[in-house]
Amino acid sequence: MARTDARYREAFNALLDYCAELSPRAPMPSESKLCEIVGVSRTVVRRCLARMEEKDLIAWEGRDKRLLRAPTAEDRIAQQGGLQRSTNLEQRFLEWILKFDVPANTPLSVAELSRSFKVPQHELKEFLAGLSRFGLVARRKQGGWMLLGFTRDFAVELSDFRAVLELHAVRQAVDAPVDHPIWSRLEILRADHLALMNRIETDFHAFSTLDETFHGAINSVVKNRFVAEFQKVVSLIFHYHYLWDKTDEKARNEAAIAEHLAIIDALEARDEEAATIAARRHLKTSKTTLLSSLRYHDLA
Amino acid sequence: MARTDARYREAFNALLDYCAELSPRAPMPSESKLCEIVGVSRTVVRRCLARMEEKDLIAWEGRDKRLLRAPTAEDRIAQQGGLQRSTNLEQRFLEWILKFDVPANTPLSVAELSRSFKVPQHELKEFLAGLSRFGLVARRKQGGWMLLGFTRDFAVELSDFRAVLELHAVRQAVDAPVDHPIWSRLEILRADHLALMNRIETDFHAFSTLDETFHGAINSVVKNRFVAEFQKVVSLIFHYHYLWDKTDEKARNEAAIAEHLAIIDALEARDEEAATIAARRHLKTSKTTLLSSLRYHDLA
DNA sequence: TCAATGGTTTTTTATTATTCTAGACAAAAA
DNA sequence: TTTTTGTCTAGAATAATAAAAAACCATTGA
């Protein structure tokens, strides 16, 4: 019960690795130095040292710590099964919602999600609390959480908000200095777009990734933590929706490539007016696509 | 330990209130009806009914539940001390940071905050997880949380982001139909501003609230959950910073009133160009004020 | 026959208790 | 002095647990 000692186990093995570098009988660094080396508190380091002494790996008396023998594979401590990655939970969660088309107003069971995502319950709760800031989920009066989900309103507001941020980014990009990395990125993107256009008949589904890269590049001009945070979610949602709505995919992507190229042209010409118009047109198309994919699913 | 029965206690009293309306010997509604009435699960309702039967308030046999006597004040169940409001935790937390000028990179102790705000630990964790979406706090590698706080970068990015949102709102407002509530709100605000201008010598500190109302009105034109969510935090931060930086407060507020009036004038003239310029000027002033208040505190 | 209701059980949530970890302090050594 | 260690206290992560929700099934009564 209670807190796991995964940290101690990891630290112990890390210390063994460090000792392997050391020559036998060499004095070991001070406890606080070892803390820095394995990135853990002195409490844990001392626990590790105690075990090493017990296993006759080191002689430890006061400040004198000496390696007695080279550590072997058997000395290593087993990692408790779990070690489940709670990284990219966000991505996995959104992927789940969009791929399985979880409908709006679905109650979310923390217990169930915790099992399927192999993540401790409390971590999921914190994650959901974070998502509630984006209005994607909300607490229920009876307790627990509920997916507000991709309703029509949500999609409209998301698209509008995205448009506000991205038009701002476009305006900033026009004013970017010549040595700004955006210009070389745009050149590469232009080439990629033209290349894809040539093999569009077969590779039209490769557009989704390109789209994400393109919008990422545009938004990278704006150095703002709030924008960046939103962008992460926005792009993920648009990305999966694109993957998912297969109607007229080739035609849509072909049109989108043309729209992207128009934006690149206008940006490189430093023509704010034209760039804004081109961006607005493309964002409008995106919004329409997102909405129609929702409509399609409402019928299903 | 474990979950409290506050819900049961509240439900029981609510049921008593409901019974008080009933005439004695009257049959009570079905369990599921009672659930809807008090907004609680059947499990809790049945626990309440069991207690009512035990206290000889009702006769209960199968579907036949009859009130035996009118409930008295003594029948009520005591609410367990706590009932601590975890509402407006956000406001209280930001208030604490800004009022006590908690510096950036301060480690936040969940245990301590939990005590001082009288809120269960896990609720605080969820709250902090939410705030981390705004980049105001972050997890530490060693565990726990840390206030990233109001650094210069944070203030700049916050101001910029606010400007993006608010300029968008201004552009929307210009296009708002004549019967949109914004116009009457602006008329009232104009009068309020003029009134405050007349008594500025004595009441200049009343501007802070007026400022919040003004920006709230402008932003109310944009109906967007993302904007609204951010606006809550943004306005709170600006609000407290205004309250807090006392240098040249009268002169600053007087100037700000003039800037507000210029925005109102331009909006009512439906002049997008002028409105944008006026708004941009005001936002720039705000940003400068916010930054200088930080500089002032850095020295302290 | 069937919808609504009640008894019962299973599952999930909220919260505490517990173990591990971090950090602080003072004594000891260099 | 300055650094290092022994000791202690407070805090964080997590499992255990009581309460609540929800599902299930039998029963009632139209």
Q: Mind explaining what this structure looks like?
A:
Chains A, B: InterPro entries: GntR_C (IPR011711), TF_FadR/GntR_C (IPR008920), Tscrpt_reg_HTH_GntR (IPR000524), WH-like_DNA-bd_sf (IPR036388), WH_DNA-bd_sf (IPR036390). Chains A, B: This is Transcriptional regulator, GntR family. Chains A, B: Residues 157-285 form the GntR C-terminal domain. Chains A, B: It comes from Fulvimarina manganoxydans. Two copies of one chain form a homodimer. Chain A has 300 residues and is mainly alpha-helical. In chain A, 65% of the residues lie in helices and 6% in strands. Chain A contains 13 helices and five strands. Chain A has helices at 6-21, 31-38, 42-54, 89-99, 110-117, 121-132, 152-174, 181-198, 200-203, 207-219, 225-244, 249-268, 272-299, and strands at 58-61, 64-67, 106-108, 137-139, 145-147. In chain A, the strands form two sheets. A three-stranded antiparallel sheet of chain A has the order 3-5-4. A two-stranded antiparallel sheet of chain A has the order 1-2. In chain A, a hairpin with a 2-residue loop joins strand 1 and strand 2. Chain A is elongated, with a radius of gyration of 27 Å. The A-B interface holds A 39, 41, 122, 125-127, 129-130, 132-135, 141-142, 154, 157-158, 160-161, 164-165, 168, 223-227, 229-230 and B 39-41, 122, 125-127, 129-130, 132-135, 141-142, 154, 157-158, 160-161, 164-165, 168, 223-227, 229-230. Chain B binds a DNA duplex (30 and 30 nucleotides) through residues 1-8, 30-32, 40-44, 46-47, 62-63, 109-112, 120-122, 125, 142-144.
